[in-house]
Amino acid sequence: MPMWNPWHGCHKISTGCKNCYVYREDAACGSMIPSSEVRKTSSFNLPIRRDRYKNFKYPSGTHFRLCFTSDLLIEEADPWRTEIWRIIKLRSDSKFTFLTKRIDRLEKCLPSDWGDGYDNVNIGCTTENQDRADYRLPIFLSLPIKHRMIMIEPMLEPVNLRQYLNPALIENVSVGGESGKYARPLNYDWVLDVHSQCIEAQIPFNFHQTGSYLIKDGRQYHIPRQYQHDQAKKAGLDTF
What we know:
Elements: E1 3-4, E2 7-8, H1 20-28, E3 39-40, E4 63-66, H2 78-90, E5 95-100, H3 106-109, E6 121-127, H4 130-142, E7 147-152, E8 172-176, E9 186-187, H5 188-201, E10 205-209, E11 213-216, E12 219-222, H6 228-234
């Protein structure tokens, strides 16, 4: 699944969110640009690049992860977003998924022909605590979107999603802890609770990573980055 990052930079907009994921991914790519600085990247037109035979380098059916080290709806990128929508529409044969903490900006950022949503776009609304869930998710559910997911990451406290778990609107829920040297711990009981909520609502659930510190049965474990996804998978909670 290619990661398509048309621009670099993501400002912190919530005291509940550290940008450790952004910084880590930028560092992995050798970026020396401060994450507070928003600019186009060299991969801006990645999905429509062609080979020497004029075919798309990424074939039909490719699933692009969009802006996973930034945010598609960041204000500073407003002048470039129209072109991104054009690329997404041109590649209607492929799927695009993006996550955002700025769901309250989506309506003003949509293209004129959006209608009730593009078939090939999956939007994930991220929350990290109950306050942000109660602010963002009502907005998320009110907007014209074909494919929706809820992402609780980094999960910083218990979150009750029951009033938002409409299987006609939400396709899946994913939970993860925070990574990095200064990560706040994830309590496994919080994960189990959201898992139960999703089972009740018959919505697929995914525990995608433990984070650096996991509390289970009253004991805190430090989990190195390379094992966080595998350890989450071994919990056997995934239903998709």
